[in-house]
Design a protein that fits this description.
With 119 residues, the protein is mainly β. It is built from no helices and eleven strands. A hairpin with an 8-residue loop joins strand 9 and strand 10. The protein is globular and about 40 Å long. 33% of the residues are buried.
């Protein structure tokens, strides 16, 4: 079992930046990849980005590419989501997730951290 705890959310104005963190604990040696999702009010959960735990291979969805960056620090068992040039529509709850293999779905989830972009 992998436990995930997100932090770093908050209230920001359009154009500002935030960095979200997600610390993994438990069976971290079983992690294949970690990802970030968000759920905006009244909308379904949306995949944003993922990074493989060992090789650091990155995928970022086109919807946030160029503004959001995913990275990891294996020594700290932490994955980050750097969000720049935030827009009103980036508001939502941001979730961290982990998968245990290339073909497995993300099966471990954090509790989420709220990001609110408002002028």
């Amino acid at each position: 079992q992998v436990q995930l705890v997100e932090s770093g959310g908050g209230l920001v104005q359009p154009g500002e930046s935030l960095r979200l963190s997600c610390v993994a604990s438990g069976s971290t040696n079983s992690i294949y990849a970690m990802g970030w999702y968000r759920q905006a009010p009244g909308k379904e959960r949306e995949f944003l980005a993922a990074i493989t735990w060992r090789s650091g291979k990155v995928h970022v969805e086109n919807s946030v590419k160029g503004r959001f960056t995913i990275s990891r620090d294996n020594a700290k068992n932490t994955v980050y989501l750097q969000m720049n040039s935030l827009k009103l529509e980036d508001t939502g709850v941001y979730y961290c997730a982990a998968s245990v293999s290339q073909t497995a779905d993300f099966s471990s989830w954090g509790q989420g951290t709220q990001v609110t972009v408002s002028s």
